[in-house]
Amino acid sequence: MRSAALTRTGTAIAAAARDARRAWGWPAHAAAAGVVLALLAPLFLDSIDVQSLASWLYLALAATGLGFAVGLAGMPSLGQGAFMAIGAFTAALLRTKAGAGPFEAALSGLVVATLAGLVLGVAFVRLGRVLFAVATWLLAWLVALTLAAFPAISGGAQGLVISRGSLGETAHYELALVLVVISSLALFAIARGAPGRALSALRERRAAALALGVRATRLRLGAFVGSAGIGGLAGALSVQLAGIADPAGYGPFLSFKLFAAVLLGGMTSAIGGIAGLGVISGITHLSHWIGALEHLSTTRFDPMLAALLLLAVLGLGGQGLVPFLRRRSWRVGRPAAPAASASRPAPAAGAVLGAHGISKSFGGLVALADLSLEAGPGTILALIGPNGSGKTTALRTFSGTLVPDSGRIELDREAITEEPLEGRVRRGIVRTLQRTAVFEGMTALENVLVGADLRRRHAGAVRTVLATPKSRAEDERARAGAHGLLEVVGLGAAAETPAAELSSSEQRLVMLASALAGSPRVLLLDEISAGGSAEDVGRISRVLDELRRSGLSIVLVEHNLRLVRAVASSVIVLDHGRVIASGSPDAIARLPRVREAYLGTHRL
Amino acid sequence: MSLALQIVVTGLAAGGVYGVVAIGYTLIYRLTGVVHFALGDFIALAVFATLLVAAGTGPVTQTSVGGARFVLALAIGLAVCFAAGELTYLLAIKPYLDRGSTIGWVAVTVAIAFAIRAVLSAVFKRPSYVFPDPLPFRDIGKGGVVSIAGASIQVRAFFVIALAVALAALATWTLEHTRSGRGLQAIASDLEGAQVVGIPVTRLVAGAFGVAGGLAGLVAIAAAPSAPFDVDSGTLLGVKGLVAAVIVGFGSPWRAFAAGLTLGVAEATIASASISGVELGPAYRDVLPIAVALLVVALRRRPALELE
């Protein structure tokens, strides 16, 4: 028993080492060498320089933290300075008033800022981007004005003077460097792992990501809290390094500077914040130096320089410095993905979806009137009817993006009428959207993985960062499964193709594979064949037929009667929200009203 | 009683300015979905451009500027502010709106705010400025202060309130009764529809950006002589206006204006209020309203998540 477990652990470690070697290209060598050199730097520098470098590194730490919110989750946070301030003044007050040690103070700063981030995050992350920016901007002002107004907290104009304590500037420097490296590695790992994939799906196409069951609120909250906590830690440490907590240093400009740094360096890069901050500081130093030659004080131009730099980069349509450099010179491709082993995940058993007397009106418009239907395992139920007949509305009430005015929806005889979208996806009801909705910035395989990640249990942020054996094994299974599903829809060869380069009907098949990756029990397909050629329709009909035979319950909304006749087990015809006919595909196709609607009144 | 009257009048005067700024935010938000983070700094731009022409960058006394020169200064100040607003939209905001990049225009507007502030503080190096006063309010009452029912009130306050109400009325009237105003309303309710029927969307929206800054600048200039003005005053006015606009959810211009007036009175009340013996005092004046605005944003019932 024990030896088996040891062997497993040994294998896992060996696999990890193998992967690490594969990913270890020369940029990683260069970065590692740089970090080692940086660690040794205090040997060659005098203490003033070490102090200012350490203080810069703490700022870089806060910027890296902000990368979690801005880069990873796409939330324009203008309040990172506020979290630095919270951490800084928590630490400063504990040091000066409560006699706490440096590490207790730093830890408390981290905890208080994290809690503040949690409370504010619960309120803010549900907002759209615009209101999120407004809320964080007001937060930056609230904290700055609070510090200005209450000398009891901030020490007034003199600030709070903190004794140096046991941590010297060299210790601060090394600590800051290690924290910066750890936080950017964590950001890098999360961005490449399942949480990063889900967040970038959300950034790209919110509706499609939600339809696949991505937990938007939770992920964004996690990113925001992480960014707040890191900001607080940076503030709590830097304030002790400086030896003084000066409220004037934590105004909205600090927040803007960090935000600008992330955008300048490139929000999609884990080291974007650091690089951007480097550029800002470099230019600022240069201007001070030139100013000193002319005996001018140029400090007042600092905000100007940061602003102009940002305007220039954004004006050039730039993605930021790091992505720019990477495209230009590094040209290191991603490490080759592990050999594409494809395995088809065992399909989940279908479930019975039942609707009983569903009605829905929008204002005076009746979209659905008393619709009842049942879709069982191993069958395909097709909903057809002219535009505006209520087909998509029906699917939306099944998938949980719309609550019916009356009636009951059941899954395996259990009422789920009020269950929101996320819960239904977890129960196994997955819907594809009417519009083509792939995540264009990802490859076909990554698209499918967004759906697959939903069923993973070891893919949280912490496990992703630590790359635990369980998480890695699961990752490999998910990849193999995603490959298998791409083969099922006939796109096995296109796994590494960017989704944007696929044809629109191939994109629909990718969307179908993503939906299948979540192991649905009931699949809701909204015009999956729209715009496809006869060949595409043939391909889709083969795929659907196979899925039906594997025991899935499928509800199909379709305009293409040929596809309906080829695959449907039964058909319901809707018009103005009412069922006007139902029966077998052939019987339906013979109905005059249907022939009239689809084929025109001419006799063939 | 006298204290209450004093609080209300001072509060309304400050609130009138907030209200006009809030109208600016609301107008722009409803037209484009943009929150104009640089609006407060455009106010500072208008005030300081006027000051520059009227009196230069040196020390000023309230009486040192003649009427004609002030009118010229005012015209130039507002023109600069209007043009800056239009150009900001056309060159900096519109490209990101067209690309659908929220982060882009957020970054650009905030960057412009800090850039304006940096330029102003480079030109106007004194910590704060007295703004010249071409209207002879100081000849009324005791040096411009009258005593009503025991309350000492600056005569200027009534002027600012009247001007703010007039500007708010003018803005609403323009929206409802002029061609451009109806065009703007059409854009706010249906952008694509407005484009289809041939409304010059870009020109009108750019004009709205200019007017939003110009109106706020005008009322801020009217209020400026009553207290020292510095580079940050404009930014802070911008924040106050934003607070008012956020509290009413960027609703109609009148609601934004009313929220601004309420905010002004609330601030004046907080500054001199005590709750069960504990003085609130000026320290809470700036802080409490922002906290309330954040609470409102957090607690507002939002329409069901946009899912499709």
Topology, please?
The complex is a heterodimer of chains A (604) and B (308).
Chain A: H1 2-23, H2 26-40, H3 47-72, H4 80-97, H5 102-124, H6 129-149, H7 151-154, E1 160-161, H8 169-192, H9 194-204, H10 206-211, H11 216-242, E2 244-245, H12 252-265, H13 272-293, H14 302-315, H15 321-330, E3 353-362, E4 365-375, E5 379-384, H16 391-399, E6 406-411, E7 414-415, H17 421-427, E8 429-432, H18 444-453, H19 461-466, H20 469-488, H21 504-517, E9 522-526, H22 534-549, E10 553-557, H23 561-567, E11 570-575, E12 578-583, H24 585-590, H25 592-599
Parallel strand pairs in A: 5-10, 5-11, 8-9, 9-10
Antiparallel strand pairs in A: 1-2, 3-4, 3-6, 6-7, 11-12
Chain B: H1 2-32, H2 39-55, H3 67-99, H4 102-123, E1 145-148, E2 151-154, H5 155-177, H6 179-189, H7 191-196, H8 201-223, H9 231-247, H10 253-272, E3 274-275, E4 278-279, H11 283-299
Antiparallel strand pairs in B: 1-2, 3-4
Task: Note the main attributes of this structure.
heterodimer, A: 604 residues, alpha/beta, Rossmann fold, 3 domains, 6-stranded mixed sheet, 4-stranded antiparallel sheet, 60% helix, elongated, B: 308 residues, mainly alpha, ABC transporter involved in vitamin B12 uptake, BtuC, two-stranded antiparallel ribbon, 11 helices, 4% strand
Overview of the structural elements:
The complex is a heterodimer of chains A (604) and B (308). By secondary structure, chain A is an alpha/beta fold. Helix content of chain A is 60%, strand content 11%. Chain A folds into three domains: 31 residues; 284 residues, no CATH class; 182 residues, P-loop containing nucleotide triphosphate hydrolases (Rossmann fold). Chain A contains 25 helices and twelve strands. In chain A, the strands form three sheets. In chain A, strands 8-9-10-5-11-12 form a six-stranded mixed β-sheet, with helices on both faces. Chain A is elongated. In chain B, the strands form two sheets. In chain B, strands 1-2 form a two-stranded antiparallel ribbon. Chain B has a two-stranded antiparallel sheet with strand order 3-4. In chain B, a hairpin with a 2-residue loop joins strand 1 and strand 2. The C terminus of chain B is likely disordered. The chains are: A alpha/beta (604), B mainly alpha (308).
